[in-house]
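Task: encode each sequence below as structure tokens.

Item 1
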Amino acid sequence: DPKMKILQKVIIVLIFSSVFGCSFQSKQYNFIRNTLSNRNVDGPTPNWVIDWVGMKIRVFAINSENQIFFANYDDYFLVFDGWQIIEAKGFLPQKNVIKIQVNDNNLTYILNKKAVTTDSCESWSVSIDEKTNFILHEQICYAAGTDYNYTNLIFLNDESQIIALKYKIHPDYPSIQLTLNKYTQLDLNRKY
């Protein structure tokens, strides 16, 4: 029981503080810190995989009222509002936060509170994906000042649950891909 384990850890801290007084030696501090920071191996496991510039990053999906948060213990963090990834942390150098602001069909990428670029996008379209027979929402976007375009994708299974996402989170990087564990073999690349 997770509550019991937390209670046990609190009791250990109280015992150490009463036995050894207010000053902790480094060995005592390290023991307590390690005890409290140990991840419960019996607890939940990440249920999504992010594919980002050749790395596979396992994350949890945390549903909120209007958003889904994708996060793990290593400070990787994404916010998805149902149609767009609007924030990403931990993926860029220095773990900078990038925000994506949606205004009509324009996506503005903001890094360190400065707009990097604004790309124009078509409206979302929906179809049945020919490769998988899943429901596919796609949005074609045009990179500002170039003839390059990219496609944001949302895959839904037969029960209308999101099973995969593919989004641009920074204009200088390839798209990030998120896949529910059960669908990690799903190919999110589409040729048009």
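Item 2
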Amino acid sequence: KESYGSRCFGLKSSPFFSLREKNSYRLIFGHNMYGMHNRANYGKLLGTLFLSLDLNKSNLILPDNKKEFTYFILVDDNGNSFSFNGKKVIKDEILSELGEPSEKADSKLIFLETPNYLIYKSRISDKPLTVITALDKHSITAEVRFTTFVIISVTLLSLTIIALLMRSILRNIVTPLKKLSIHIENLKEISP
């Protein structure tokens, strides 16, 4: 079928693409090429250009694998999926909690809450791809607990330092001034 513009074929796996890695997926795009300069071939289909992107070698800056609590997954309409970060076990767990991730829908952002994850799902317009972002609830609450502990500790330490400074000011400045004031009042009463 002749078509104009680029077409996305989704995620494809083949030993041709990667001899070393089993189940290595690539994102495949195709674009028909037409003659433009030679009058005899002007407008005629000359061939098709294919672009194969190895997602394992992408330069995306994603959260560190050591602090895994945000996961990014790309799913095509055939059910093939690629996890940009995270292990296969986690990807499979997220996809099983999600159900059917590649439902053909519009490109609006869909939010789902499961027992373990907060999942955001968005369809890429005019492409057979869905992007899934999953946030691990347990890791998020652990981060919040740690941050709350740090904030409370710093606040209590600050209040303790302020209380000690106020006590020092009271003992070293206010009390001597009060004694001086009382002494001056006594001197006023004695002198004629």
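Check on item 2: The helical segments are 88-98, 137-190. The CA atoms of residues 82 and 95 lie 11 Å apart.
End of task.
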